[in-house]
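ESCALATION

Customer reports they have been waiting on this structure for their group meeting. Please prioritize. Original submission:
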Amino acid sequence: MSRIGSIGSLGTAQLRAINRLTQLGKAITQNQKRITTLRRINSAKDDPSGLVSARLLETELKAAEQASQSVTRASAQLNTADAAAGEILTQLTTARALVVAAADGTLSADAIAGNQVQLDQALAAIDSLAHTSFNGRRLLDGTSSFRTSGVDTTEVLDVDVLDKTTSDDVTVSINVTQQATQRTDQYTGGTLASATTLIVEGPDGTTTIDLANGADTQTVTDAFNAVTYLTGITATRIDASNIDFTTVDYGSAATISIDATAGSFVTTTTQAGTDALATIDGTQYTGNGTTFNVNTNRYAIVVEIDPTASGALSSFTISGDGLEFNIGSSVSSTARIGLGNLHTSSVGGVTGKLSSLRSGGANTLTAGRTAEALKILDDAAADVARTQATIGGFKKFTLDSASRVLDSQIENVASALSAVRDTDLALESALLANNQLLEQTTLQVLSISNLRNQDVLSLLRSASIRF
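Update from on-call: job pushed to the front of the queue and completed.
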């Protein structure tokens, strides 16, 4: 006699109930796993295509997060460079005050020597600041700048490379077609016939000069040269009747204005200041005096030409990558910036470099070169300000915009990844409760079915006893 409890003795409804229990058990296990791990996809069989999509989104998310961290580090690095450049500008302001004090003619030789000592200390501090480093890399001593080679310093006084968009070396050719000139005015009146007060305005500023009755051309020349540091105008005595006044600067912005508010002092313009013209890599540029701002699709530079340079100059090469940052989720999403070389041997202008103000240099206070020192300090300050502007522009237009894009990318990719991979807790909890209820119901149905089988067996046994 067959056993009622064997699988073969089960009815169709019972088999279906057992299969349903098996399915519900698997579903409950999956529900519990998804709730526990908070992941809808825990293995490839859960959703093969979804798993592939999730892996791609995970890769993209990690790349965007890494790029965001890179942008944050880049911003911190440039903030450090900007702070150091700002402190260098403060030192230059202090140095300028020392030079102005030495130029007013009231200080003794010992006091001027004392100012020179302080000036030397300020220049040493500037060199120290130029060596400021971040994460082991120096920022403002030329290490993080784009490099130039082949520059003939007798023709090209200075080259500041602001940007280089290609990793290849770039050769720059310059042909000067017109030299810059200084503004020159001439006085031909000889000895003054009365006391005279002059308002003198030049490229660097305005001042008042008082001249006594009977002042000769040498006295007038000395009076003008004593305030060159204020006006940017130098005077040259030609003879007993004539004096030439010339701007230190070159270009159309170099102007001279001499007005007498008392007495008589008449000058005429003998030469206007004009800007240099040059063809740089095939494009015609008009300089700001002798300085050219060149911006192409391969590089951006500020190049200062010697005023005497003319014709085809020696070409030079721009190389190096400056500071390169990853600003996007792809390998090709990079940006470069070259920080200026703010070492005292590199900043300055036509008059000379900042290092020439040191004791023993060509433009020291003790040598009486205060006008030249002021001009160099102003040119150096312009170099530092240009570096700060470059840093600020790069942060604003490159890093900040990249950061906003990456933040949005991270948010959107994370949302898409969550939609593909993560568990919908509300839905999964509801499914778990439903599956558990179905499991309990199926067990009850199967239990009832088993009881009926037992009743049938009992009846069969009673019938066999009777017969």
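Sent to customer with the following note: The first strand starts at residue 133 and ends at 134.
Escalation resolved.
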